[in-house]
Amino acid sequence: MRADIDELYCLWKQRIEDRKPFQYIVGCEHWKDLVLSVQEGVLIPRPETELIVDLVYDVVSKNEDLKRGVWADLGTGSGALAIGVGRILGNGGKVIGSDLSPVAVAVAAYNVQRYCLQDKIEIREGSWFEPLKDMEGKLAGLVSNPPYIPSNDISGLQAEVGKHEPRVALDGGIDGMDALLHLCDGADLLLKSGGFFAFEVWPLFIYYYKV
């Protein structure tokens, strides 16, 4: 990143006075061993979300069907989980990342292209399961980092998060459970028998196999 003194002052002012996240200022975030493009309108990937990829790695290393199957990342944001999972799947394994936000879809697609994973990862636009109607009963696995913060708690978040990051990626409804319940209901339709589902509700990670 190159900028003259006036530009640097403007950027620093955004950071100090507006509490704009540093990742939005520089346009990227380091996540696992990746450097992912991010911008306002896209949730900044968190270090704790890396644990979902580690969990998937443990699962697919013991199950060839899951390793070679089709996975989905719902609410993909920057595409972090889709890319993280896509890189550990075997030959034939693919990931579909979906997001309601056109901005997130564009950023995720850029990140996928940046790591030359277009043949392995497809990004679709739409809300949760809507872009995946063709995958009912076919998914080997499903991952997500959904919004789970109760609506009334959003205003109490640090300014970098509550003021600048997309509310749709944070707000989980009155009790924080809206998206979680929706995901649990829909996952059963998309997963094939033996399929694996994992999502983050920090500090917890919830996962199960479909019987």
Automatic annotation (TrEMBL):
<keyword id="KW-0808">Transferase</keyword>
<dbReference type="InterPro" id="IPR052663">
    <property type="entry name" value="RF_glutamine_MTase_cyano"/>
</dbReference>
<dbReference type="GO" id="GO:0008276">
    <property type="term" value="F:protein methyltransferase activity"/>
</dbReference>
<dbReference type="GO" id="GO:0032259">
    <property type="term" value="P:methylation"/>
</dbReference>
<dbReference type="GO" id="GO:0003676">
    <property type="term" value="F:nucleic acid binding"/>
</dbReference>
<protein>
    <recommendedName>
        <fullName>Methyltransferase small domain-containing protein</fullName>
    </recommendedName>
</protein>
<dbReference type="InterPro" id="IPR004556">
    <property type="entry name" value="HemK-like"/>
</dbReference>
<dbReference type="InterPro" id="IPR029063">
    <property type="entry name" value="SAM-dependent_MTases_sf"/>
</dbReference>
<dbReference type="Pfam" id="PF06325">
    <property type="entry name" value="PrmA"/>
</dbReference>
<keyword id="KW-0949">S-adenosyl-L-methionine</keyword>
<dbReference type="InterPro" id="IPR002052">
    <property type="entry name" value="DNA_methylase_N6_adenine_CS"/>
</dbReference>
<keyword id="KW-0489">Methyltransferase</keyword>
